[in-house]
Structures are given as C-alpha cells and as structure tokens.
C-alpha cells in the first residue's frame, strides 16, 4: 500500500524560548490506516499534530495533505482534516446541536441537519442534543468534541489522547467508533499514552521522542521484530547451576533454582531453534518440570525499550 | 470567499447576545436613561441652550457615542477572547477560513450589536427630549463607521488580552475617559482656550463632533476632520489586525 494522504518533509519547530519541539520530522501517513503516534510527555506529539492542523507555525519544512500544502493551499488541506484536541474545550453554554452545527459551518459546509443527526446518533449523543455542554459529563464532552470534528465529513481525523480520563467502557465504545470510521475510509491518526490503545487499534505505530521520529513500523511487524518472548519452566527438583550444555545467555535460573527462564525472540522460533531444542536438551540432562508459563512482551515493553535507547 | 463560516461565527455571536440579553442590551439602555435623568433633567434644567440646542437634546449624540464606543470594544474583545480563554479557538485556527472571514464574522456581529444598541438608545432618548436628525444618512454613516472601527479595536484588544483584567483595562482606562473628555456632555467652546487645544488631541472629540453635526448641524470641528479621523482610525485598526494574522501574534506559537 503506497497511497499517502499526509506527507511531512523536514519539519522543524523551535519555540520562541528556544525549545526545539520537532527535529527533522519526515513522516508519511497512508490513506485509510489507523496510525498511532506514541511518545512520552513532551516528546512532540501534540506539536506535530498542531503543525499539520495549522495551529502552530513550523520553523521549517512542509506538510502536504492529500497533495495540498497546508500553508499555501490551507483551505483544501484543512477541509479534509478533523481534529479532536486533548483538552476538553467547549463553549459551556451552547447546546450539543448548536455547537456541532457551528463546527460544520465554520469548516465551510452548508447546513445538513441529517448529517448532524447521523453523527450525534453514532456517538450516542442524540438524546443529549438540546442539553447545554456545561451539564454533560467528561465522557460526553469528549464525544461532543469528536462529533464537532466529524461534522464537516473529514477524510482525516486526528485524535489527540482521545481516551484520556475516560472510563474503560466508554474507551471501548470509542474504539468501536474509530474502527467504524476507518471502515468508512477515514484515515485516523491518534496519539496516546495508553499503549493498550495503540496495540488494540493501530495498523502502524510511530514513536516520537525528543522531537524526533525514532521508529515507524507496521504494528504486527514491530511486535515480531522487537517483541521478546519468555518461557518459564517450574522444575520438579531445584538446580544449583545450569549444566554446561544449557549454559546459554538466553537461559537463567530463579526462585532458588526451581524456575528455569528461557528468553527468546521471534527469529529463534522461526529458525526452529527455540523451544523444541531446549526441551530436547532438558530431556537429555534428565531435568523434569511440572508446569510452564509463556509470556510475550507487550507494545508497552517495546516502547519503553525504544525510548530508553 | 466562503460565506458559511462567516455566517456560522456571526450567528453564534448573535446567539450569545440573545442569551445575555440583560447584560448586552437592557443594561446599557438603563444606564443611558440614568444619564438622561441626571444630566438632562436634573442638571440640564439649570444649563441654558448650547448653540441653540437644549442641553438634554445636545447630549444625545454624545451619549449614543459613549455607548457605541464602549459596547463595540467590549463585545468584540469578549467575542474573540472567550474562545482563547476556553481553548476552543483551536477550531477557528484549524478551520479552512481566511483571516478576512474571521474578522467579518466577529467584528460584523459586534458592530451589528452596537448599531442595534445605538438605535435603541436613540429611540429611548426620544422619551426624554425632543429629537431631530438633520442629516440621517450621515448619522447612519457615522454610526456604522464608528461601530465597525471600535469593534476592530475590540478585536485587537481581545487578541492582546491574556486575562479578564486586561480585557477591561482599555475600555475603562482609555475609552471611557476619552469619551467623557471628548465633548459628550459639553461643547469644547465652553472650555478655556488652553484646554480647547488639549482637547483637540483627543480623537473621540472628532467622532462626537461629527455625529452631533449629523443631528443638529453644529460641530466643534469640521465634518472633513471628523471623517478623516475615523478613516485614519479604521485604517490603523485594519493594519494592526493584518499584522496580527501575518505574524500569528498571541494566536499561533
């Protein structure tokens, strides 16, 4: 698949105080994908989104949205984008219906009550349409922000920490909404602190740290490439030390010799050297076990390793 | 130009006026009526005519101008400041909307409210004093130009202000004193020569004078000077707003 909808070339952003928030960022987002941008606090995630959406002026570089430069062809570029910001920012005294309709008008679209109704229903906001925003819960306000972003039928949706402070049930409902949007052809770019969120939803993962993109990878490939696995064998008899034939860096003892831990990655498994070889060696040495447990490192582990590196 | 965003901003701002009717319309009308009672009836009865016009009628243009200036600045500054304060300005800045369209929406709504308010005050004054408007077209021209110019000034203040205190600073410490000292309640002929000279440095004098001329055909300065002053002020505000959008001053980091 090579059908870029956003192309970022050589983006730099240095704020007035001298803080460099983005450094030589090159990034391509493919049409129709869910792209998760991960990074610790202050890594530059929000600055990157803000530059693409026109909220922050870049110091250098260019952003093309569906082929349109977001500075010189800002109308064409921006009308394709919907943004759900991190903060719950709303006109407190407006009704849900009015504020979502306002957003559609602001983005240059003719009034379309049927579309607004459809958006509100898809986000379970229809019953609240005449409520003033100040009376809504935090989760509902978050949905209103999504409704506002979808009011003008964008082809690209930026979700900046979309489920921050949202309970588990609502988070899962939002994930469902995002998947439905993707199924309808909307490209989704989300930033998140919740690795689980990226692991659950993203097609590709980008990691940003200190303003630099340190990795962009297909999620499954990333998990395969960097994810390590661990097999723990609970031995019948404790071992004081590993026999010479098992003395490899991947093997270690713990729990006073009652647990044998084997750490390996996807490649060893594919090459046919992994667990079968170990089990044969154990049998040869007369080492028996009563139980076993396997664990695969999560995206969170991978992320922490990358950022620390 | 796309008129949908302009309409969206304009209607949202006018809706805010309807929600705050008491503060937006009723309050200025009541305070103006009090000016009529105090200056027009109580004090005015002891003052003879000014340039052939009864004192009560003489102060009508000045009072309208006082409300027009303060309300234009206040409406427009609050209109753009509030989204900045609440954070919802992200939507405005990320929308496919030109700078001109943003200004038309916010300043158009603020000026509309002020013009409406000016006309309501004009009608209210009819209950207190006999009114005549010698040059109605000029009166409307001054009304519209002043409302637009000071709404532009308010828009600038709304962008400049970083807190509610600064939002009130210019209207309270600059606009109101200049209006009070700008011939709203007196003709500058009534001042000693030195203070007449000082007063001519006050730009509001030209606005009040021109507006009063449209009512009664009397003025402190020439009509040309009044028109030139408001034109100058309008151009300065437009240039400042152009600079704000070009540089992203207090809008975009």
UniProtKB/TrEMBL annotation, chain A:
Give the record's keywords alphabetically: ATP-binding, Nucleotide-binding, Transport
Q: What is the name of this protein?
A: ABC-2 type transport system ATP-binding protein
Q: Cite the ABC transporter domain residue spans from the record.
A: 6-235
- Superkingdom, according to UniProt? Bacteria
Q: Which GO terms describe its molecular function?
A: ATP binding; ATP hydrolysis activity
- Per its UniProt record, what InterPro entries does this chain match? AAA+_ATPase, ABC_transporter-like_ATP-bd, ABC_transporter-like_CS, ABC_transporter_ATP-binding, P-loop_NTPase
From TrEMBL, chain B:
| Taxonomy of the source species | Bacteria, Pseudomonadati, Pseudomonadota, Gammaproteobacteria, Oceanospirillales
Query: Record's NCBIfam families?
Result: PRK15066.1
Q: Name one GO molecular function term.
A: ABC-type transporter activity
Official protein name in the record: Transport permease protein
* InterPro entries to which the protein is assigned, alphabetical: ABC-2_transport_permease (IPR052522), ABC2_TM (IPR013525), ABC2_TM_bact-type (IPR047817), ABC_2_transport (IPR000412)
Tell where it localizes: Cell inner membrane; Membrane
- Keywords, ordered alphabetically: Cell membrane, Membrane, Transmembrane, Transmembrane helix, Transport
Q: Which family does it belong to?
A: Belongs to the ABC-2 integral membrane protein family.
**Any one annotated GO CC term:** ATP-binding cassette (ABC) transporter complex
Establish whether keyword Iron is in the entry.
Answer: no
- According to Swiss-Prot or TrEMBL, what is its membrane topology? Multi-pass membrane protein
